[in-house]
């Protein structure tokens, strides 16, 4: 029923008040009921209405997208429709209601603007269609499931640091120490043959043209393997700053992937907790950062403990040659001592290992409080936590494992700086 039917009922009170008899009331009530029943049968059935959703392109979190809803009148009657294109709250749908009058065979398109507030595949909810007749006393309503979803990638806010980090790496590239034996496999130039040169390096075609012996010179290979392991266990679900520890780990991984692939390194990413949740590689990828973003979009932390033995096995299976292995996890003293340290010898025997952790900005704020006794005890607990983290990093350094511990917004840059330092000093 609609407000028009209510207004018609109110208008029917006028003759009843003028002629207050039971017959007048019966006639007025009969007219209202007859009009409502007649209007109900005049409303066209909307079963012949065809609906289709066309989602817009995938976007990064913070950018807007859209979805187009197409309505096709497959009936032989005119349809007067009120449409609500509902979405999940996290999709941030704007102006979901619209009105349409469709002739038989006519179609219409409704574009719903979306402003997502979380990453992942955000599904569309039911499309509710309400039809009415000319009188508009009674509506027919139906909710239809029209499957569609928009894919929202991680924000990658740290990409603004990529140009400066890339420029710094290029400036220092000429001073990079090369930790590899042999003459390499990358062709560099031609030069005249001198005594002591390897005869296998002689370019016979160039020697024939120059009428003298000419040899090829080679550059050592500079591309390396980088394996990034992102911990998606229950520790990664902890709130840290404006997001979670897992969100900060994604940002750091995206920036390191962009920087390393730009330098010619091959990057493999493993997301794991009790099992391997996702894996991506820059090998043969046209856009490694985009492919990594797509692979990590549907992954969220789960309330499981990480199985570091299976994670170490996955790393060794991913890369058998020496690589830089970056473990992005929580620098928790109990977790590192009981779970990570036992598997470190297995990894360090084949790879260079780096442990990266997210610093909770709330700890510094709690450590600075000096209001009352409770604040002092809270500050002492925060200081103890920070000292435990510093002691853990010292212990890792003694085992030959570098570590990075920074605030969520600074972790990507700090990890990129460590990669550049290792690249320049020949630590990879």
From TrEMBL:
A Pfam family the protein falls into: DUF58
DUF58 domain ranges (all copies): 190-388
Name by which UniProt lists this protein: Uncharacterized conserved protein, DUF58 family, contains vWF domain
InterPro entries: DUF58
């Amino acid at each position: 029923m609609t407000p028009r039917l209510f207004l018609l009922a109110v208008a029917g009170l006028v003759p009843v008040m003028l002629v207050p008899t039971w017959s007048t009331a019966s006639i007025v009530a009969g007219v209202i009921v007859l009009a409502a029943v007649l209007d109900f049968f005049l409303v066209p059935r909307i079963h012949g209405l065809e609906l289709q959703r066309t989602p817009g392109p995938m976007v990064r979190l913070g950018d807007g997208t859209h979805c187009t809803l197409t309505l096709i009148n497959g009936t032989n009657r005119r349809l007067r429709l009120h449409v609500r294109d509902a979405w999940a709250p996290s999709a941030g749908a704007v102006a979901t209601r619209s009105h349409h009058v469709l002739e038989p065979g006519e179609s219409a398109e409704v574009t719903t603007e979306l402003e997502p507030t979380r990453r992942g595949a955000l599904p569309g909810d039911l499309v509710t269609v309400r039809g009415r007749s000319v009188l508009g006393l009674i509506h027919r309503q139906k909710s239809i499931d029209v499957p569609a979803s928009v894919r929202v990638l991680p924000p990658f806010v740290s990409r603004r640091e990529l140009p400066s980090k890339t420029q710094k790496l290029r400036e220092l590239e000429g001073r990079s120490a090369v930790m590899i034996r042999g003459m390499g496999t990358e062709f560099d130039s031609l030069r005249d043959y001198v005594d002591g040169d390897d005869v296998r390096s002689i370019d016979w075609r160039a020697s024939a043209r120059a009428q003298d012996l000419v040899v090829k010179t080679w550059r050592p290979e500079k591309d390396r393997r980088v394996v990034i392991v992102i911990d998606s266990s229950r520790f990664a679900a902890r709130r840290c700053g404006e997001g979670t520890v897992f969100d900060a780990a994604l940002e750091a991984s995206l920036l390191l992937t962009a920087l390393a692939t730009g330098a010619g390194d091959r990057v493999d990413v493993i997301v794991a907790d009790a099992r391997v949740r996702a894996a991506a590689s820059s090998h043969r990828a046209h856009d490694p950062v985009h492919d990594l973003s797509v692979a990590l979009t549907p992954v969220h932390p789960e309330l499981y403990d990480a199985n570091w033995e299976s994670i170490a096995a996955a790393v060794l299976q991913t890369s058998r040659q020496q690589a830089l292995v970056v473990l992005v996890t929580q620098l928790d003293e109990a977790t590192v001592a009981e779970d990570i340290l036992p598997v470190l010898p297995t990894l360090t025997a084949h790879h260079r290992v780096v442990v990266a952790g997210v610093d909770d900005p709330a700890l510094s704020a709690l450590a600075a409080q000096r209001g009352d006794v409770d604040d002092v005890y809270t500050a002492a607990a925060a200081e103890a936590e920070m000292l435990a983290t510093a002691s853990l990093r010292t212990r890792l350094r003694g085992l030959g494992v570098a570590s990075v511990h920074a605030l969520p917004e600074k972790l990507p840059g700090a990890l990129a700086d460590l990669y550049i330092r290792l690249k320049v000093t020949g630590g990879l």
